Amino acid sequence: MTDTTTVDPDALLAEILLTPEGKADPYSRYAAIREHSAAYRTSIGFVVVGRFDDCQWVLRDARFGKGDVDSVAVWERYGITEAEWVEHFSDFNRRTTSMLGLDPPDHTRLRRLVAKAFTPKTVEQLRPDIERLTSRMLDEFRGAVVVDVIPELALRLPIAVISEMLGVPESYWPALQPLVRAATATLEINPSLDQLEAGARAARGIAECFEGLIAERREHPTEDLLSQLIHVEELGDQLNHDELIATVILLFGAGFETTTNLIGNGLLALLEHPVELQRLRDDRLLLGTAVEELLRWDSPVQIDGRMAYEDLDVHGVAVKAGEQVVTLLGAANRDPRTFVEPDRFDIGRGAAQLMSFGAGIHFCLGAPLARAEGRVVFDQLLDRFPVIEPAWGDERPRFRDSIVLRGLESLPVHLA
Ligand code: HEM
C-alpha cells in the first residue's frame, strides 16, 4: 500500500511523461497518483483524474467538451501572436473539423455519416480481408529467425486494413506513414512549437495526398468508403469539402498507430507472461477475452481529456470554465475499485468495461475493427509459429517517446 502522504503526484506524472524509467514502468506511478487523491492540479495548470469512474464521468458529461483552440488563445502558450498562429498552424483547424475535435451537433452529424462502416456486423464482413492481409505478411516471415514485429507487422497491418476500407492504394503508404506519425505527435500533452510545426507540415502533406486521391475517385468512383463519402459531399448538405478531408485523414490516422500499439504492447505482455501465452495457445476460445486484457494491461492510448465548459468542483478541486481536465486511461484500467487484482495479467479475465477506447460520444468508432485485427493477428501468429520467444537479450524493448500513444520502438522476436 502506498503511503499517500509522501507522494508527489506532479513529480510522478512528470516522470511518466518525460523519463525513460517512467515510460518503462508508468503503472506503479499511476497507482500512486490514483491513490493519492481523486483529482489534483498539476504545476502547469491542468487538472488530472485517474480513477475509472472519474475518467468515465469526465468523458461522458456534457459539461465537458472538446473546446476550441481559438477560444483559449492557444498561441499565447507558445509566445506567438494570433496572426502567426493562423499563418503557420491553420492546418490544425482541419483537425478540429474532424469529429474527434467537435461537439454536438456537428460531431453527431459527421459521426453518423461513417458509423455504419464500423459496426461490429460490418467489421465481421471484413474479417476475411483482415485474415488475408495478415496471412500475406506472415508469409514473409517464413525462414526468418528473428523478426522485428513493429515495422514488419504491427505498423503495416493496420495501414493495409484501413487502406482497404477507404480505398487508399498501396503506393501511397510510404509517403503517408511518416506524415501521420509526425501529425499524431501533436496530440501529446503540451507539444513543443517544433512538434507543432512538423505536425502542421505533415498535415498539409497528408491533405495534399488525399486531395489527389479524391480528385481521382470523383472521376472514377468505386465501392470504397472514400467514394461513398465523396458522394455524400456532392449531395451538398451534410459534408463540406474541409470536413471530407478531415474525416478521411482522421479515419486513416486514428486507426494505425493505435492498433500498431495493440499488437506491439500486446505481444510484449504475452511474451512477459509465458504461462498466459501457453494458455492462449492451448485454448483459442480465449482470444476474445485475451485481446480485452491486452487492451487493459498496456493501453495503446494512455491519456485523454476534455475542456470544462462551466465552473465545476472536481473532487474538491475548483475547475474553471475553459480549463483542461486530463483523464489517465492507463491508470483507470488498473483501478482496484473496478478491477479485481488489477495488476494480475489474466487473459481469461473478461472485464466488463475498459477505458482504452475512451467513453461517451467520442467512444472509439474503430473499436470493433481494432478488436478484430487483434484477434486475427494473435490467432495467426500462434497458428503459424509454435515458438515465439523474446530476442532482445537483457535490455527490455524501449517505448517510444510519446505518452498519449504508448507503443514500442521495436520488438525483436525469435520465430520457429
Ligand atoms: C487498439 C486500437 C485503438 C485504440 C486504443 C483507440 C482509442 C481511441 C480512443 C481512446 C478514442 C477516444 C478519443 C476521445 O475521447 O477524444 C478514439 C476515438 C476514435 N477512434 Fe480509435 N482507437 C483504436 C483504433 C481505431 C481504429 C482501427 C479506428 C478506425 C478508423 C479508429 C477510429 C477512431 C475514431 C474515428 C475516433 C473518433 C470518434 C469520435 O470522435 O466520435 N480507432 N479511439
Written account of the structure:
There is one protein chain. This protein has 416 residues and is of the alpha+beta class. It has one domain (9-415): Cytochrome p450. Helices cover 54% and strands 8% of the residues. A 5-stranded mixed sheet has the order 1-2-8-5-3. The chain has a 3-stranded antiparallel sheet with strand order 4-10-9. A two-stranded antiparallel sheet has the order 6-7. Helix 9 runs parallel beside helix 20 (367-384), helix 13 packs across helix 15 (241-254) and helix 16 (256-272) packs across helix 20 (367-384). It starts with 8 loop residues before the first helix and ends with a strand. The model has no long low-confidence stretch (mean pLDDT 90). Protoporphyrin IX containing FE is lined by residues 59, 99-100, 111, 162, 250-251, 254-255, 258-259, 262, 300-301, 304, 356-358, 362, 364-366, 369-370.
Query: For the terminal residues, how far apart are their CA atoms?
Result: 42 Å
Could you say which structural class the secondary elements and strand pairing correspond to? Answer: alpha+beta
Bound molecules: protoporphyrin IX containing FE
Order of helices and strands: HHHEEHEHHHHHEHHHHHHHHHEEEEHHEE
Residue runs with pLDDT of under 50 for 5 or more positions: none
Tell me the radius of gyration: 21 Å
The largest pleated sheet is described as:
5 strands, mixed
Strand order of the largest sheet: 1-2-8-5-3
In CATH, the topology is named Cytochrome p450
